[in-house]
Write a structure and sequence with these properties.
270 residues; mainly beta; Jelly Rolls; seven-stranded antiparallel beta sheet; six-stranded antiparallel beta sheet; 1 helix; 50% strand; globular; glucuronate isomerase activity; Deoxy-glucuronate_isom_IolB
Length: 270
């Protein structure tokens, strides 16, 4: 199995755990908690900032002794928009499930920005349609570049069955602004219906002899996490199975400037 593919535990509690150390990088952390009603998850942000994303279900959230109320409303990631909570460094948090709950904990280094805790309601989230034809996908911006955070960028995408996404292939692995930014990235994948599968390839440019420093093609199943330390990272959803993914990105500068694979850039103009 590819070292870039993290299989979530099928039980409940914390079922996926990605740290900078386990991923072999510097910035992005990602945990996933699956909770039954009455079960809780909690943590401390320490020197990191966190975005809690209520992927599915409802739960009562609190931080620093303050009750944030009952958050979440959708029961499937393929409908509606999520509730989220932004937590700066030095915070503690707790969520107790009111229904079956899937809670993503997205983290990156805090930079002392002094930002306040904030609840991010579905009505606060912008949505956009990207691509055309069988490259159409639907994007919900949870913590985009234009909203306050120190390092984190968080977005979710739905790709209909038979469509491609993160395509034409692009990368963001060079700290070379304004042309390209360096951003590590995780993909948390869901399938509808859940017995389906999709594909994701993570690869770098070919050298003079045609070899690639990284070239991994993975079959993605419901609940899988894919690590993108560098390179291009397109996805393909199979006919009959819609693909959802939650992206977490972070790097030395909080901006998303990507570089298209030159051999496929003609697709942007087609």
């Amino acid at each position: 199995m590819s070292k870039l593919l993290v299989k979530a535990n099928k039980g409940h509690g914390r079922v996926a755990h990605v740290t900078p150390k386990s991923a072999g990088w510097t910035y992005v952390g990602f945990d996933l908690h699956r909770l039954k009603p009455g079960e809780s998850a909690s943590g401390e942000t320490k020197d990191r900032e966190v975005c809690l994303v209520f992927v599915t279900g409802k739960g009562k959230a609190s931080t620093g002794g303050k009750d944030l109320g009952l958050l979440g409303e959708r029961m499937s990631p393929f409908e509606g928009k999520p509730w989220s909570v932004y937590l700066p460094e030095g915070s503690d948090w707790s969520v107790t499930a009111d229904t079956d709950l899937e809670l993503a904990v997205c983290s990156a280094p805090g930079l002392g920005g002094g930002l306040p805790v904030r609840v991010i309601a579905p009505d606060d989230l912008g949505q956009e349609t990207r691509g055309k034809g069988t490259n159409t996908r639907y994007v919900t911006n949870i913590l985009p570049e234009g909203k306050p955070a120190d390092s984190l960028l968080v977005v979710e995408v739905i790709t209909p069955g038979g469509h491609t996404s993160s395509y034409p292939p692009h990368k963001h692995d060079q700290d070379n602004l304004p042309a390209e930014s360096y951003l590590e990235e995780t993909y948390y994948h869901r399938l509808n219906p859940p017995q389906g599968f999709a594909f994701q390839r993570v690869y770098t440019d070919a050298d003079a002899d045609g070899g690639r420093a990284l070239d991994e093609a993975m079959a993605i199943e419901d609940g899988d996490v894919v690590l993108v330390p560098k390179g291009y990272h397109p996805c393909a959803a199979c006919h009959g199975y819609d693909l959802y993914y939650l992206n977490v990105m972070a790097g030395p500068k909080r901006t998303w400037k990507f570089h298209n694979a030159p051999e496929h850039e003609w697709l942007m103009k087609a």
